[in-house]
Amino acid sequence: MHKWLGIAIISTAALGGGIWTHLQGQTPNPRPAPNVQPPPQIISGADFGFRVETVAPDGTPSGKIVVRQNGQWVEVRLTGSARRIDIVK
After folding, report:
1. DSSP 3-state of 40
2. Nearest 5°: phi and psi at 3?
3. What is the DSSP letter of 85?
4. Long-range contact pairs involving 81-85 (C-beta distance under 8 Å, separation at least 24)
5. What is the per-residue pLDDT for 33?
6. How far apart are CA 46 and CA 73, in angstroms?
7. Dihedral of CA 14/20/23/24: which sign?
8. Which helix (DSSP H) or strand (DSSP E) does residue 59 occupy?
9. Rg (CA), the chain
10. Collapsing DSSP states into helix, strand and coil, what is residue 13?
């Protein structure tokens, strides 16, 4: 009877020690920041750039053309119209 009681105590201690060791090696899951978006990525030269808003699964970026004014990136509004070009012979 004492033999089985000793085996039970040693087994319980070994199992508890193994569980404790396993839990010490795990890192806790960090809490995600609520509604925090990373700053937009801008591919740019000195004062002219492209702000990436999304990237398609095939790797194609989409976004807006921006320029730097007073240290801030400002979206460009492109205006223009189609005109007929007459070729003079």
Report:
1. coil
2. -65, -45
3. -
4. none
5. 61
6. 11
7. negative
8. none
9. 32
10. helix
At residue 51, the 3 state secondary structure works out as strand
- Residue 55: both structure tokens together: 């990237």
In this structure, what token pair is assigned to residue 65?
Answer: 């053309």
Identify the residue whose tokens are 């087994």: 11
Q: What's the token pair of residue 63?
A: 């976004």
Please state, as a whole number, how many other Cβ atoms lie within 10 Å of the Cβ of residue 66. 20
Residue 20, SS3 per DSSP: helix
Work out the widest C-alpha separation in the chain, in whole angstroms: 115
pLDDT along the chain (89 residues), means of 10: 76 77 69 63 78 82 86 82 73
Predicted confidence at residue 66, as pLDDT, reads 86
